[in-house]
Design goal:
- By secondary structure, the chain is of the alpha+beta class.
- The protein folds into two domains: 262 residues, Beta Barrel (Thrombin, subunit H), CATH 2.40.10; 109 residues, Pdz3 Domain (Roll).
- The chain has seven helices and 22 strands.
- The strands form four sheets. It has a six-stranded antiparallel barrel. A six-stranded antiparallel β-barrel has the order 3-4-5-8-7-6.
């Protein structure tokens, strides 16, 4: 596989449809040009009609649950999910270098029957006059109900009471090699394009998809073909459940090269629920800088030549845990009982084992503000427990 560090990141929203600002890094791929392009969904009565009858949908979901994970199962999924996937068109706010303004096209999916739509933040960033179109051709004006820049997710609201929401899966159960399907508005004019692939990797972090200081990156990697305009669309397992939100690709050319990234639905569900409830996401916070343990890190911290010697010096049997680099002054961690210190090795959170930094950060973020937690650490090879009252993470 090509080194990710030399690949170009492409955010999967088609921008600048007719009025792209000069130098924009989100408008390099134009809409597909082909005389065979269908802009409308398959007419009613066609072979691939979507299923909108609730009783029929329930029957098909039950049938799907009994089928082996094979291509016949994949034929049912678009019928079930297409009614819940939407095309999104956004007019960008005018900028100094682009007084005319621009447009963006992306994807989304229905979260609730009463009009909540999930998508990516970068699809609606700096946007107004947002329009959402379902597979039936019904168009709704939409408002931004809430955004979360730290995960690049957003929730829109349309005025409707009878939309068909997706079914959510459990991204924690995803395995590498598992078959998945992506649905989205490819190139901004190929609505409800369905592609199939596998989960290539899980837990992709530090791929610079999100620029926020407190970003949360824990992406599912897939080779299901996704392109410009797919941003915000669902990644679906063979049970017809949404397991991810298609967000970006890593590419040397700007087009899809087999490396797509999707936010895991367990993380997205937490964000979507908070945005629907309050319009914002409040996260727990400790106020520390920390790192995953790596062979180079443990050798440097212990001045040992081998990893085995370094682990022994730290009192560990395996390369697992989160090392505290810094405890910021006046933060919840600094006020713990006893205070957390640089060099502490975090191995547990309220009794649950901690092996990776991203897992630890997510646990802290989902903890209610002002709740007291017990964090298990090794300090000078000795186990100890620190009680900390969780604070609220700064907005920037």
């Amino acid at each position: 596989m090509r080194n990710l560090s030399v690949c170009v990141l492409a955010i999967l929203v088609l921008t600048g449809c007719g009025h792209a600002p000069a130098g924009s890094d989100r408008s390099s791929v134009p809409a597909a040009q082909s005389t065979a392009v269908r802009l409308d969904p398959t007419p009613v009565g066609g072979r691939y009609d979507a299923v909108v009858n609730p009783a029929e949908r329930d029957t098909l979901f039950k049938k799907l649950a009994k089928l082996p994970v094979t291509l016949p199962a994949a034929r049912i999924i678009p019928k079930l999910l297409n009614p819940s996937v939407v095309n999104i068109v956004v007019e960008r706010n005018r900028a100094r270098r682009n007084p005319v303004g621009s447009a963006a096209k992306g994807s989304g999916f229905i979260l609730s029957a009463d009009g909540y739509i999930g998508t990516n933040f970068h699809v609606v960033e700096d946007g107004h006059n947002i329009r959402v179109t379902t597979m039936s051709g019904r168009e709704y004006p939409a408002t931004i109900h809430g955004v979360d820049r730290k995960t690049d997710l957003a929730v829109l609201k349309v005025d409707s009471k009878n939309l068909i929401p997706v079914r959510m899966g459990n991204s924690e159960k995803l395995e590498v090699g598992e078959v998945v399907i992506a649905i989205g508005n490819a190139f901004g004019n190929l609505g409800h394009t369905v592609t199939l692939g596998i989960v290539s990797a899980i837990g992709r972090t530090d791929v610079a998809v999100i620029s926020h200081r407190y970003r949360y990156e824990n992406f599912i990697q897939t080779d299901a073909a996704i392109n410009k305009g797919n941003s915000g669309g669902p990644l679906i397992n063979m049970r017809g459940e949404v397991v991810g939100v298609n967000t970006a690709i890593l590419s040397g050319s700007g087009g899809f090269e087999g490396v797509g990234l999707a936010a895991p639905i367990n993380q997205a569900r937490f964000v979507f629920n908070r945005l629907m409830e309050t319009g914002k996401v409040v996260r727990g916070w400790l106020g520390i800088d920390a790192r995953d343990l790596t062979p180079a890190l443990v050798r440097r911290e212990t001045n040992k030549k081998t990893v085995a010697e370094a682990l022994a010096a730290l009192g560990l049997q395996q390369l697992s845990g989160v090392l505290v680099n810094q405890v910021n002054f006046g933060t919840p961690a600094a006020k713990g009982t006893p205070p957390m210190k640089r060099g502490d090795l975090i191995i547990g959170y309220d009794g649950d084992p901690i092996t990776r930094l991203d897992d630890f950060r997510n646990r802290v973020a989902k903890t209610p503000v002002n709740q007291v937690v017990k964090i298990q650490v090794l300090r000078d090879k000795k186990p100890m427990e620190i009680q900390i009252k969780i604070g609220e993470q700064p907005s920037d």
